[in-house]
Amino acid sequence: MKPTDCTDYDFLKIEPHWQSIWEQTRPFRAENGSSKPKYYVLDMFPYPSGAGLHIGHPEGYTATDILARYKRAKGFNVLHPIGWDAFGLPAEQHAVKTGTHPASNTQNNITNFRRQIKALGFSYDWEREVDTTDPKYFRWTQWIFLQLFKKGLAYVDERPVWWCPELRTVLANEEVIDGKSEVGGFPVERKNLRQWVLRITAYAEQLLDGLKDVDWPDSTKRMQEAWIGRSEGAEVLFKLEDAALGDLKIFTTRPDTLFGCTYMVLAPEHPLVPGLTKDAQRAEVEAYRKATASKSDVDRMSDAAKEKTGVFTGSYAINPVNGARVPVWIADYVLMGYGTGAIMAVPAHDERDYEFAQKYHLPTPRVIAATDGSDTLPHTGDGKLINSPGYDGLNWEDAKKKITADLAAKGIGKGTVNYKLRDWLFSRQRYWGEPFPIVWVGADDYARAAKLRRDLPTQPVTFVENGTTLFALPLPETALLLQLPDVQSYLPSGTGESPLANVPEWLEIWLNAETGAAVPASQPKPAGEAWVRGRRETNTMPQWAGSCWYYLRYLDPQNAQTFAGQDALNYWGVPDLYVGGAEHAVLHLLYARFWHKVLFDLGVVPQAEPFKKLFHQGIILGEDGVKMSKSRGNVVNPDDIIRTYGADTLRLYLMFLGPLEAMKPWNPKGIEGVHRFLRKFWRECIGEDGKLNSRVSDAAALTADTEKIRHETIKKVGEDLDAMRFNTAISQMMIYLNALQKEPALPRAALLEFAQMLAPFAPHLGEELWSRLGGTGTAMEATWPRFDAAKLVADAMTIVFQVNGKHRGDAQVPVASSEADLIKIAQEHPKVAPHVAGKALKRTIYVKGKLLNLLVG
Ligand code: ANZ
């Protein structure tokens, strides 16, 4: 390829020049099914916000790009794709304000992101670009939803959700921060709405298990484990004094402490509470229940951390192991959604119970004696049982098993496993998301449809509305895509339904249950058995949906028959490496794993885990060491850096800042240094006149020392890239360049090789100099250099010879030379010999590997 005609390192000319060549020749195209080994390196695709690329994007993207280019040079068929996670609230808010379709705002943002990403010279295969809002894409998101639906993994439920009056939508827990919406910071409240929920809890065990098979940062694995929150324990039945109320079932992880239970606590919303409450306590209990109802679980946990509160119901339960009468309380530190919503409180051995007991003067008898003999309370650690007739002296672990077994034998308890993981709230009352391919129909119509269809779930999904049971009828797969209808206004209906509820001709339909064809209900019912009357689902899917499977679409993005063809899936499998921010450690990665496991169980993907190896790039802080933010004015805009220093400098700098995984502050001085390094290499290759530097020649050879550094560099750069240590690879190239600078003459081949090693990091400059140095083809096509292990071993060393402390000469000697060898060499050395000849050697001082002093007299 032809280089530019710059006489100087004019990156503003050089970079667009090579980018346009890549645009035309498409050298980064990945081939489905080549005979080369495959390497799939995946970036977390960006949400194309109006603000443009953040500096954190090119950090991770540069790292993966270097690897993609390096692996290509090593002979791999590399898949390195990019796309857009483009549904989401901001485009919708923009649409509400401007009245323009969210799609147009989204496309503008994508255009800007694409421009910025292309300006960085990333070697993406642009033919595989995906956009989650593209109907050709979300048709398959809908298809995957239908698979979940058919498997009974999707259902509807009336749920208290976070309702934000300002945004007129519900929010997921993770979108609410301190009682305010994450987007916009508006106040939120609780409201009950019909919601789609995905049964991710059915996969709790598999999601936990699978973590054993993946190469992920430990901290991320631990966060997923904590999120899934597996607890082994027992459910125990306590009789209530008022036998008419039945039994009280509690969940405990510590059945060994049963003899230490001095009171019970129910979640305030526990259904037994009204029955248990005595008249004298009713007013107080009611007030407490009301106060709790307005709090989220998260608030309850953090409020409870501040100070425990609770109210006595006036009733008692009976401890099944000793018949003790224990008072029943309600308190908001017990959550209805976990375990059974009721606990036995053991204040001597549980922190929360202890605090509560102190406050309300409840007894705290000890039932575990600490192994170390300490007697501070609460004691939550290990020990032996005391005050537990029949079990005293047993180690707590053994007691746990024995008591559980004894309870089970009596039919009043059993060992159970609980998970913190909750089912996934999967609907939003928004326009700018994937519509659900679901139509609500009455019982008769559903029964008629069921005769024509084989793809309905075993258990129909139903919902009772105003006393009528509605049935969720899925569109047949063949009827997908379900498009988003055009709307007049992007404001939600205000009742909690999305703007889709405002489009009557789309909403109320005659549906052909067999084909999925629809006619507005305002028109006469078409003739035929298959036509049923229905109302479409108005919820849309959350943004997580599109990002749950995009890595599969990249394998076969044009496929109109299926989400990805079997050949493509078999050839590429799953990404070999996934790089992205640690902020996705839980939700995105858990949701995507869940969908992948469902697809695996359906037999449509060949691997059980989607992300074999995961790496998180560290956050880049502002120059002031604080998180970059608009309000602090410490945000770095990639466009500005590219204009001033070039994309190659930015890429190199992002990698040179520190280890990829480290959190590190931006440093404008560092960028100058990296830029100088690139200029220096330019100068070594190109003279002031823009022609090859006169020191460059085919005949020149490197001096032995530099030749050794050359081999060290090839070795280190390769090893560092394999281990994702980009910063140290760059340091080594800097060392090598310094050595080259000192050479009397520069072999052209050595410079070509340098350009080639630099090319993954600084691809524009790498290609430009490769071309100017007369390299064949392109730097990226050339086979990656190999080092000669023999050259790495220093086989000679230089020894300084002194006679009576005076420098008399030096010599290159084999590294293995002993002191005796050196004395002999010195005595024969032409410059040393005259000073020692005929004199007695009294003593020698040898500084190993450096200096030999002969003391003669
Ligand atoms: C008695 C006991 C004695 C407990 C003891 C702990 C220590 P994890 O590990 O989180 O599963 N618990 C059970 N259900 C609860 C709920 N719905 N809300 C709040 N707390 C609940 O914790 C399980 C323990 O948390 C259970 O074991 C129970 O207290 C409490 F020395 O039972 B434990």
Report on the structure:
The structure is a single chain. By secondary structure, the protein is α+β, with helices and mostly antiparallel strands. Among the domains are: 230-419, Valyl/Leucyl/Isoleucyl-tRNA synthetase, editing domain (Isoleucyl-tRNA Synthetase, domain 2, Alpha-Beta Complex); 668-791, Orthogonal Bundle (Isoleucyl-tRNA Synthetase, Domain 1); 794-856, Ubiquitin-like (UB roll) (Roll), CATH 3.10.20.590. 35% of the residues lie in helices and 20% in strands. The strands form ten sheets. Strands 10, 11, 12, 13, 14, 15 and 18 form a seven-stranded mixed beta sheet that branches. A hairpin with a 2-residue loop joins strand 7 and strand 8. Helix 19 (638-645) crosses helix 20 (647-656) and helix 24 (748-758) packs antiparallel against helix 25. The longest helix has 19 residues, at 704-722. It starts with 10 loop residues before the first helix and ends with a strand. The structure holds ligand ANZ. Residues 231, 251-254, 257, 333-335, 338-339, 341, 343-344, 346, 349-350, 418 line the site of ligand ANZ.
